[in-house]
Design a protein that fits this description.
The chain is built from 23 helices and 19 strands. The chain is α+β, with helices and mostly antiparallel strands and 617 residues long. The strands form six sheets. It has a four-stranded antiparallel beta sheet. A four-stranded antiparallel beta sheet has the order 12-5-14-13. A four-stranded antiparallel beta sheet has the order 8-7-10-9, sandwiched between helices. The relative contact order is 0.15.
Length: 617
């Protein structure tokens, strides 16, 4: 393979395989034609248009999978994801260029061993399946030669990276320092001072106090800039009382969705398939005698338990021979050999999920609501063209509300608005983008409804009149006054504790937390409690105050102890040492690749990048 072969494909290899291996195979990759073949290069190593497009698409879809929200190319550019992907590809291209310069490579046996490790290419017997391998690559616009060349390059790059990272370690003291910080144990005594403990009682705001607080804190009572919007809308819920429900149709809907209401008994089943009945019977005999277990037999086949898991199945989901036998088993256990659609198999039952049935009479109200909403949505859909025509002919939103089923409304909309029409994402997007010059147009809602809106004016940010926020101002003043009184009283009591007064003699509710660590959470204490009692300067015998939630906690550190020696703490130390070493190694490799990029020179074809972004829109 020539050195100019796209190094970006190496990144795509793990991206595609990562998705394929977890069951998202066949998502497709970009395939850009045209005369421009590369988006960038480092030295003699090119990053092809397809490599960049595939890598960017892989990362975008990973974000979509994590957030369950669409993620556009525009967002990828705004958030810097496209540049991050290009930087990764440039770093890999720099390393590939260097391995080619040094003559680093691996033999066919190494490539073959790596190829055989991918579970995505294994058949039901746990062995490498050539047909699965070819089909999987074909679904992702790749061929065997290019894929295996990518594996070879990846292995060569790993050799170079491994040489750079070898010998990088972190001292044991690093892990111990982390454990000392995380595992330090403190015994804390607390006394809680609340409003009921004040001799003067809870302060009440006078008119003068309210006015003074309001004048001193205008930002707290300022309404944000709003968009005053008039809208007309219609949702299925507004029309359900106009829908006639047919009882026969309701029963048909029930029957059509019978699986939602009648659930047969299901069992949690694992299946291990064998090549012959003799092999399956021998395994069953070993399990029955106690010589082996189901897990042992799975491992002996080179499989993991996940490879045998069928999930929860009904009797009808299994073969005619296996179904009755599996569901005749009382409790859990292994049955078989039984013939499956893949050959003789052992079945292990791990649990039973009882069946359930919701009769039509109980489901009727739910079905009626669903049918009415669906029918109302169809009524609205039938009127959309008429609504559009009305607006085109000069109807105002007020005219629509007067002459159709649409309802008129007005809202001073901000991004914080919620409830009613403001709860719909479609309305939020339209409200945020509409201008004073725009004409109303019909927009569909996610539930089958529609709306049209008009921006009447931009309402500037302004301080709300005192009459509108008087109760809030009074509450804010009183909360602040109470906090001041509690803090002053708590400071006096804390001075006494520091001078030797016992916590129990304060006349307040007292509690002690024994040998807590920074990782503990005490729900009865105010926010910030753990940070306060573990403050670096707070030693044994020291005190601190933690205000919050209408009270002040007086805390005293009774003892400070080193972490408890344990296997868990030893594992934490080892993990932090390993993680830190990996981080340093990554930094070293990144610095080396950047130095290579500087030495060899980087060329970026912005026109090609723009073309990719345009076609991925």
């Amino acid at each position: 393979m020539a050195s100019g072969k796209g190094s970006g494909a190496k990144m795509v290899v793990w991206g595609i395989l990562g998705l394929l291996i977890i069951g998202l195979g066949g998502f497709g990759t970009a395939n850009f034609g045209g005369g421009v073949t590369r988006v960038a290069s480092v030295g003699d190593e090119d990053i092809s248009v397809n490599d960049y497009a595939n890598a960017l698409r892989t990362q975008m879809r990973a974000i979509e999978a994590q957030t369950s929200q669409p993620f556009s190319v525009t967002q990828a550019q705004e958030f810097g994801l496209s540049q991050q992907v290009l930087d990764q590809l440039l770093s890999q291209a720099a390393l590939d260029n260097e391995t080619a310069r040094l003559g680093l490579s691996v033999g066919d046996d190494a490539v073959r061993r790596e190829l055989l490790t991918y579970d995505a290419f294994k058949g039901i017997d746990g062995k490498f399946d050539t047909q699965s391998y070819k089909e999987l690559l074909a679904r992702n616009n790749m061929n065997e030669g290019d894929f295996e060349a990518d594996l070879r390059d990846e292995a060569a790059r790993s050799i170079l990276s491994g040489a750079l990272a070898s010998g990088i370690t972190m001292p044991p003291s690093y892990g111990q320092a982390v454990v000392d910080w995380l595992g330090e144990r403190r015994t804390i005594s607390v006394a809680v001072l609340s409003a009921t403990d004040l001799e003067t009682g809870v302060p009440a705001a006078s008119d003068t106090d309210i006015q003074s607080w309001y004048d001193a804190h205008p930002d707290a009572y300022t309404a944000p800039e709003a968009r005053r919007i008039t809208y007309a809308w219609l949702t299925p819920a507004m029309l359900t009382d106009k829908v006639d429900l047919d009882e026969a149709a309701l029963r048909r809907l029930y029957e059509d969705n019978i699986d939602s209401y009648v659930q047969p008994e299901r069992r949690l089943v694992e299946r291990l398939v064998y090549g012959s009945e003799e092999e399956a019977q021998a395994a069953a005999d070993r399990i029955a005698s106690g010589e082996s277990t189901f897990e042992d037999e799975v491992t002996a086949r080179g499989l993991a338990l996940i490879d045998t898991d069928m999930g929860d199945v009904s009797e009808g989901d299994l073969s005619s021979e296996a179904g009755p036998a599996v569901f005749a088993l009382e409790g859990t256990g292994v049955v078989g050999p039984l013939m499956s659609d893949l050959g003789p198999a052992l079945y292990r039952v791990n649990g039973t999920l009882a069946g359930s049935e919701i009769p039509f009479e109980e489901a009727r109200d739910e079905l009626a609501t669903e049918m009415a909403a669906d029918a109302a949505a169809r009524l609205i859909a039938d009127q959309i063209e008429a609504f559009d025509n009305d607006l085109a002919e000069g109807y105002t939103l007020e005219d629509l509300a007067n002459e159709t089923d649409m309802e008129l409304g007005q809202i001073d909309w901000t991004p914080e608005s919620e409830g009613g029409i403001a709860a719909y994402t479609d309305f939020q997007q339209a409200a945020a983008s509409v201008t004073l010059d725009d004409y109303p147009e019909i927009v569909e809602l996610s539930d089958g409804g529609v709306f049209a809106l008009r921006l009447d004016e931009i309402v500037p940010a302004s301080v709300k009149p005192l009459d509108q926020v008087r109760d809030q101002v009074a509450a804010d003043w009183e909360a602040d006054a109470l906090a001041q009184k509690l803090t002053a009283r708590a400071e006096a009591l804390e001075t006494g504790v520091a001078s030797g007064t016992a916590m129990a003699d304060l006349g307040l509710p007292v509690e002690q937390f024994t040998k807590i660590t920074r990782q503990d959470f005490i729900s009865t204490m105010p926010a910030g409690f753990m940070d306060a009692v573990f403050a670096p300067g707070l030693k044994a015998g020291g005190t601190t105050l933690i205000p919050g939630e209408g009270r002040v906690v007086i805390a005293k550190v009774e003892t400070v102890e080193a972490p408890e020696p344990s296997d868990e703490n030893a594992a934490i130390a080892e993990n932090y040492i390993e993680t830190a070493a990996q981080g340093v190694a990554t930094d070293v490799i990144d610095a080396f690749s950047r130095a290579l990029r500087t030495r060899e020179g980087v060329t970026v074809n912005q026109t090609a990048l723009n073309a990719v972004h345009s076609q991925l829109q």
